[in-house]
Design a protein that fits this description.
The complex is a heterodimer. By secondary structure, chain A is mainly alpha-helical. Helices cover 76% and strands 0% of the residues of chain A. Chain B is globular. Classes of the chains: A mainly alpha, B alpha/beta. The interface between A and B is medium-sized, with 23 and 32 residues.
Chain lengths: 307, 327
C-alpha cells in the first residue's frame, strides 16, 4: 500500500510538469498582456515594467525562470495588484474558498448518497420521481442562474437570507452560495448512487444476505452500501475539484472574499502570475485528490488492494 | 415420519408488461424430517423459482399463491420482516454460483458470524468462534486463517463450502440447495455431495436438491420430483424412477445422461426445446416432444395421479416404454 502510494506520487511529477508547461504557454498565447490598459502607458514606463517582470526576455527564458522559481516554492509576483506576490494572495483568499467548497462537498455528498439510496430502494415509486426532478434542476440550471433565482427569492422576496456579501463569521451568508455550489454535486452523486445501488440490490450476494434473514437494514448497511459506493468514490475526486473551481464563480456572484475574486479579475487583466499560480495550486489539489480516491478504493474493494 | 415442509397448491406467476407468466403451477409435495428430495428438470421448468418463492426471494414482479407450511407457519404471504425470523435459521438456501453469491467486500468470518448474531443472539467473538468451527466441519483447511480471507481469495470449491457452512450454522430444519455443484469441477462435485450427505445426516436437516444432473440425484436423493413446464410430472422414490420411469420425460432425461460405464457412440437427447412458459402447448405440455403422445394428449392435460407405491405421474400413456422411440 505504502509502495503504491509512493509510486503514484512519483508518477504525478511528470504530469505536473506537463500541466505547468501547457498552462504557461496557453496563457501567453492569449492576446493582450497585464499592462494593456484603456489608456496606453508611456513607452519608457512600459519598458521598465516589462523588464521588471522579465517580460522582455524570450518566452522560453521566461518559462525556465518561472519553472526555477516554482521549484523553490515561489509563485512569483502579481503583475497587477501592486506589492503582493501570488503566494500571499492565495494565503489570503484560498482558506475561504476551501471552506466554502469543502462545506458544499460534505453536505452534497452526504445528501447525494442518502438520496440515491432512498431512490434505489423505492425504485419507480414517488421518492424516486421526486429525486429525478430535483436532480434535473440541479444539473440543468447553470449555477449563475440558480444563484440569481435563489438570491431573488430568498434574499429579496422572502428576505430570509442575505442575497450576497460577507460578514465575518456569519453562517447565514454562506447558506445560498453553498446551496448553489452543492446542488449539482449532490445531484450527480445521487444519480450515481441510485444506479449502482439498484445494480447491487440485484446481485447474487444481496440475495444471499436476504436468504440469511438479516433484515432490510442490515442487508443495506452491511452488504449493499460498500460495493454501491465504488462508482461514487471514483467521482468524489473530480467532484471536489469541480466544487473548488465552481466556487470561484459562485464567490464572485455572491461577493465573497475567496480566491475567486482575485482569479476572475486576474484572468481578465492577464495577470499571468495569479492565473498560473492558482491553476498550479488547483492542479496539485486535483492530483492529490485522485491519489486519495485510489487509496479509498482499495479500502472499499479488497480485490483492488495494491501491492 | 414427521413432515417439516408441506407445500400445497403452490403457484408462482410473474407479471410482465402486458401478460403474466406462470412459472410454477399446482405444486404439491411434502418433505419429511431428514429426507433428501431431488427436484429435477431442465432450465425454465420452474424448479428454482418455486423454492426462491418459498424463501421470499422472488424478483419484484413475482407473485406466489398457495401454501408452504413449515409446522404451523405458512411461509408464503409472510411479510419480509416476519420471514426473516425463519430464513437463515430454520430454512436456509445455497445458490448455484459460489463465485457471486458471497459478498466480495466482506471477510468470510463477517458473513458467517452475522447469521449467529442475528438468529442466536451470540456476541461477535463467540459467533466468529462458532463460524470457524463450522468452517472446519465443512472441510476447509486452516479455518481460522481462511475466516479472515475475502471470497476472491478462495477457490470455487472453497467458496461453496463457505456457503454450506453459512447455511448450516443454525442447524436448519430445511436446506434448499439450488444446483450447488453445477459451477464446480467434477472432482469437487463428488466431495461436495458427500459433504451434503454427512452434514444433513448429522444435523437431521432435510435437503431439497434442485438440479438438472441425474448423476447428482442418484447418489444422494431419497425421493425425486421431476418438473416440466412449471408442473411436477412424476414423483416417487429415486430408485423406482431410475429403474422404472413411468413418464416419457423422465425416461428421456435418463437417456440423455452420459453413463460412465457404458461407452455410447452418441447420447440420445430429448428432441426439441423446453416450451416457453408463456405459450405452453395445449393438452400435455410435453406432447410436442413425446414419442408416446396420442390424440388425448393433444387436447387434455393429464393430471398428476397416484399409481401406487407412493408414486405419482402426469401421463395418459399406460403401455410399455422402450427407448429409441422417444427420439
Amino acid at each position: 500500500m505504502l509502495g503504491y502510494a509512493l509510486r503514484r506520487v512519483l508518477s504525478a511529477i511528470p504530469i505536473a510538469l506537463i500541466a505547468v508547461t501547457v498552462c504557461f504557454f496557453i496563457l501567453r498565447l492569449a492576446p493582450g498582456g497585464p499592462f494593456d490598459g484603456e489608456r496606453a502607458l508611456p513607452p519608457t514606463v512600459l519598458a521598465n515594467l516589462r523588464a521588471h517582470y522579465n517580460l522582455d526576455q524570450p518566452l522560453i527564458n521566461q518559462y525556465f525562470i518561472y519553472l526555477w522559481r516554482l521549484l523553490h516554492g515561489d509563485l512569483g509576483p502579481s503583475m497587477v495588484i501592486d506589492g503582493f506576490n501570488v503566494s500571499q494572495l492565495i494565503r489570503i483568499g484560498f482558506p475561504f474558498t476551501l471552506t466554502v467548497a469543502l462545506t458544499a462537498f460534505v453536505i452534497a455528498t452526504a445528501i447525494g448518497v442518502v438520496a440515491g439510496m432512498i431512490a434505489a430502494v423505492n425504485q419507480n415509486k414517488w421518492p424516486d420521481y421526486v429525486l429525478v426532478l430535483v436532480v434535473m434542476l440541479g444539473v440543468v440550471v447553470p449555477n449563475f442562474l440558480m444563484a440569481a433565482i435563489l438570491q431573488l427569492w430568498f434574499g429579496v422576496y422572502l428576505g430570509w437570507l442575505p442575497a450576497g456579501g460577507w460578514v465575518n463569521g456569519s453562517i447565514l451568508h454562506l447558506v445560498l452560495p453553498v446551496t448553489v455550489l452543492a446542488w449539482p454535486h449532490a445531484a450527480r452523486i445521487s444519480r450515481l448512487m441510485r444506479g449502482s445501488m439498484i445494480e447491487v440490490l440485484g446481485t447474487n450476494y444481496v440475495r444471499t444476505a436476504k436468504s440469511k434473514g438479516l433484515g432490510q437494514r442490515l442487508v443495506l448497511a452491511r452488504h449493499a452500501i460498500k460495493p454501491a459506493l465504488l462508482p461514487v468514490v471514483s467521482y468524489l475526486g473530480p467532484g471536489l475539484s469541480y466544487l473548488l473551481t465552481g466556487s470561484l464563480a459562485v464567490e464572485q456572484i455572491f461577493g465573497l472574499p475567496g480566491i475567486g475574486k482575485y482569479f476572475v479579475t486576474a484572468a481578465l487583466n492577464r495577470d499571468y502570475g495569479i492565473v498560473l499560480g492558482t491553476t498550479i495550486l488547483y492542479m496539485f489539489i486535483i492530483l492529490a485528490l485522485n491519489l486519495l480516491v485510489d487509496l479509498l478504493y482499495a479500502w472499499l474493494d479488497p480485490k483492488v488492494r495494491y501491492r | 415420519m414427521k413432515q417439516v415442509l408441506k407445500v400445497e397448491d403452490m403457484s408462482v406467476t410473474f407479471a410482465l408488461h402486458e401478460s403474466e407468466v406462470h412459472a410454477v403451477r399446482e405444486m404439491n409435495f411434502a418433505l419429511s424430517e431428514g429426507e433428501t428430495l431431488a427436484v429435477v428438470g431442465e432450465s425454465g421448468s420452474g424448479k428454482s423459482q418455486a423454492f426462491l418463492a418459498i424463501m421470499g426471494l422472488l424478483a419484484k414482479n413475482g407473485r406466489t399463491g398457495g401454501r408452504a407450511m413449515m409446522g404451523d407457519v405458512n411461509l408464503i404471504g409472510l411479510a419480509p420482516k416476519q420471514l426473516d425470523v425463519y430464513r437463515g435459521k430454520d430454512i436456509a438456501m445455497i445458490f448455484q454460483d459460489p463465485m457471486t453469491s458471497l459478498n466480495p467486500t466482506l471477510r468470510v468470518k463477517t458473513q458467517l458470524a452475522e447469521v449467529l448474531v442475528k438468529h442466536r443472539g451470540f456476541d461477535k467473538g463467540k459467533a466468529v468462534k462458532s463460524a470457524v468451527e463450522m468452517l472446519e466441519r465443512v472441510g476447509i483447511p486452516e479455518p481460522a486463517k481462511r475466516a479472515n480471507a475475502y471470497p476472491h481469495e478462495l477457490s470455487g470449491g472453497m467458496r461453496q463450502r463457505v456457503m454450506i457452512a453459512m447455511a448450516l450454522l443454525c442447524q436448519p430444519k430445511i436446506l434448499i440447495a439450488d444446483e450447488p455443484t453445477t459451477a464446480l469441477d467434477v472432482t469437487v462435485q463428488a466431495q461436495m455431495l458427500d459433504l451434503f450427505k454427512t452434514l444433513t445426516d448429522d444435523f437431521g436437516t432435510s435437503l431439497v436438491l434442485i438440479t438438472h444432473d441425474l448423476g447428482v440425484v442418484a447418489g444422494v436423493a431419497d425421493r425425486m420430483m421431476v418438473m416440466y413446464g412449471g408442473r411436477a410430472v412424476e414423483k416417487g422414490v429415486t430408485d423406482d424412477l431410475f429403474y422404472d420411469p413411468r413418464h416419457p420425460y423422465t425416461l428421456g432425461l435418463l437417456h440423455s445422461t452420459p453413463h460412465i460405464a457404458k461407452r455410447a457412440e452418441r447420447l440420445d437427447p430429448i428432441q426439441g426445446l423446453p416450451p416457453s412458459l408463456e405459450h405452453l402447448p395445449k393438452g400435455c405440455s410435453f406432447n410436442p416432444r413425446c414419442a408416446f403422445a396420442f390424440d388425448r394428449c393433444l387436447n387434455e392435460r393429464p393430471p398428476l395421479t397416484e399409481t401406487g407405491n407412493g408414486r405419482e405421474k402426469a401421463c395418459f400413456y399406460e403401455g410399455p416404454m422402450t427407448y429409441g422411440k422417444v427420439a
